[in-house]
Design goal:
Helix content: 40-55%
Shape: globular
Strand order of the largest sheet: 7-6-8-9-11-10-15
Strand content: 15-25%
Length: 618
């Protein structure tokens, strides 16, 4: 095997070019085999195999720098830098991350996980290189989907002023930027990237420019004519008009062609976009046919591509999807917005059933929120469905465009709490903190699938900004008999006893139920309250709990700082209530990747850890 011979950076350069095709196939086979067992991002990685090989053949790592936008597609990069053994524990606790990590390798020059950041980061690395008078190449690899994010355009605007080399590889896997317009484009590109052409162009430019009186006007005239002609035949004039050199399109699965264009890109004395056309999921038919399904794949059967573990119970996203469809049937003013996640957020069925009431804005969370504010101001009822981790990106828009105007926008926050294998950049553990700091915002969290349905109906009818946060995974179907009407700012006492009061938020109600059962078995008296609202907190419930119990325990799947527990404790201290209080929350730190149950034990919010802390307090 060729792949086994790669144990460190730049080992790929030892192979004969005739072996590149076989190495690429070995990489694909290895990725399919590994991800079918561990899960992970398959489609994006299969599509970027030859592109990554060409980069490693053209660069000297770790001296040269590659910034991977999002980082979903970095698996081949990890293989080519000698991390093959790490794939045994890919995305597992204590194992290798599914994203670039600086602490993992010198060849990972920048940590990524969210989209549209690579050009900004690369630009910073270039400026640092130039200020320190160093000599290396910086490449930012960004997908066409990530170019829908406004941050990418902000970075391009600044990159256009570059006076030194900076390579931006645009990995276009569905031609959403522009199509290859045929033979003329290829012909002109070959001319423009030829050594003799570049040398001749530089020579003529400087000689004409230095001519007295007429030199500069002639140069400007030639450039105007050239650009007018290029507008007709070159698809990259968007970049050229910004002052960024455009090379491409080039076949991203042709290593020789890629190496040639990268060689010429390194000679350009300003920012340069290399437009690469690839096929997502290439080499594995199920991934080619269903790229969305294999974006973040669970373990699957290689022969069919079907999941190994078939889901039996509905998850929270399914419940949200079902209720949204029913609400959309009844109310034509209800509209749904997603930021390139119709499948992940459960809005695909809503989009098919109510196409005129659905908007996918691309990877642009900031725009999604302000767009929703405009819809609300126009008399509609917008629901923004988004992952907790991604909503962070739109904090300013929530504050300024929604909450200051007190507009009725519903935020359906999926993947709230620990999400597992994607790690620090995807854990949804900050939303209670950052949302509750905003005036006019209300926040709810359901204890089970029935309460999610009730709360979504309540939120759509609510006259003001309101967030509904729910976790990833199977929807809890316990406590079915406890289904009180949702009242604004009111908690729900599920069991009322004495000694210990468990005040739980959302997903932690299930854990609190387990804690209560075990404490009861050991002879303790224990009440359980479903907080329901994190903002506003039910202060009457706090006073009742303080008056009847020896110990109050708050439970939330959010960081402690700014969370539910701190709000309860602040009220207890403000009112000088005489009761001992214990906050069960996540530590104020980033939580790495791993199995969710294992992570809960690690951070101390599993039932066993909570019981141990309660016994200490008593």
């Amino acid at each position: 095997m060729f792949l086994e011979q790669i144990t460190k950076p730049n080992d790929i350069k030892q192979f004969d070019p005739e072996d590149y095709g076989e190495l690429a196939q070995e990489i694909r086979d290895f990725l399919i085999d590994t991800i079918s067992v561990n899960g992970g991002h398959l489609g994006s990685n299969l599509g970027a195999v030859e592109l990554t090989m060409a980069l490693h053949l053209s660069l000297d790592l770790p001296k040269d720098k590659i910034v991977w936008d999002v980082g979903h597609q970095s698996y081949t990069h990890k293989l080519l830098t000698g991390r093959r053994d790490g794939f045994e524990k890919l995305r597992k606790f204590g194992g290798m991350s599914g994203f670039p990590k600086r602490k993992e390798s010198e060849c990972d020059c920048f940590d990524t996980g969210h989209s549209s950041t690579s050009i900004s980061a690369g630009l910073g690395l270039v400026r640092a290189r130039d200020i320190r008078q160093e000599d290396h190449t910086v490449v930012s690899v960004i997908g066409d989907g990530s170019l829908t994010g406004g941050m990418a355009y902000e970075a391009l605007n600044n990159a256009s002023r570059m006076g030194s080399n900076f390579i931006i590889v645009l990995n276009d896997n569905n031609m959403s930027i522009s199509e290859n317009v045929g033979g003329m484009s290829k012909y002109l590109n070959n001319i423009r990237t030829a050594n003799n052409y570049l040398d001749l162009k530089d020579s003529i430019y400087y000689k004409l420019k230095d001519m007295p009186k007429y030199g500069k006007p002639i140069v400007r005239g030639i450039q105007n004519v050239k650009n007018s002609f290029k507008q007709l035949v070159i698809p990259g004039m968007f970049f050229e008009d910004m002052g960024i050199t455009y090379l491409g399109p080039v076949d991203g699965h042709d290593i020789a062609a890629m190496m040639k264009v990268l060689k010429e890109a390194k000679r350009v004395k300003n920012a340069v976009v290399v437009h690469v056309l690839t096929k997502k999921g290439k080499g594995y038919e199920p991934a080619e046919k269903h790229p969305a399904r294999f974006h973040g794949a669970e373990p699957f059967e290689i022969e069919t591509g079907l999941p190994k573990n078939k889901r039996r119970k509905a998850n929270y996203t399914d419940v949200f999807a079902t209720v949204m469809n029913k609400l959309g049937d009844r109310d034509e003013n209800l509209v749904a917005i997603t930021a390139a996640m119709p499948d992940g957020t459960g809005l695909k069925r809503f989009a098919n059933r109510h196409p005129g009431q659905f908007f996918d804005v691309g990877i642009a969370e900031e725009h999604a929120v302000t767009f929703a504010a405009g819809l609300a101001a126009g008399g509609l009822k917008p629901v923004v469905a988004v992952y907790s981790s991604f909503l962070q990106r739109a904090y300013d828009q929530i504050l300024h465009d929604v909450c200051i105007q007190n507009l009725p926008v519903v935020f359906a926050i999926d993947r709230a709490g620990l999400v597992g294998s994607d790690g620090e950049t995807h854990q949804g553990i900050f939303d209670l903190s950052y949302l509750s700091s905003i005036p006019n915002m209300s926040i709810m969290a359901p204890k089970n699938k029935w309460e999610l349905a009730d709360m979504l109906k309540y939120a759509v009818a609510f006259q003001g900004p309101i967030a509904l946060r729910y976790p990833r995974g199977e929807a809890y179907d316990g406590l079915e008999d406890h289904r009180a009407i949702v009242e604004y700012g009111k908690a729900e006492w599920i069991y009322e006893e004495s000694q210990i009061a468990l005040l739980a938020v959302g997903s932690m109600v299930k854990t609190a139920q387990q804690v209560r059962e075990k404490l009861k078995a050991e002879g303790y008296s224990c009440s359980l309250c479903n907080a329901r609202f994190v903002k506003p907190v039910d202060t009457a419930m706090i006073e009742e709990a303080a008056g009847k119990h020896e110990l109050i325990v708050t439970l939330e799947e959010n960081v402690r700082s700014g969370g539910f527990g701190e709000k309860v404790l602040d009220y207890i201290n403000e009112k000088k209530l005489s009761v001992k209080t214990r906050i069960i929350a996540l530590p104020d730190e980033y939580v790495e990747h791993g199995n969710v149950d294992l992570l809960k034990e690690e951070v101390g919010i599993d039932a066993g850890s909570i019981i141990g802390k309660i016994k200490e307090d008593l």
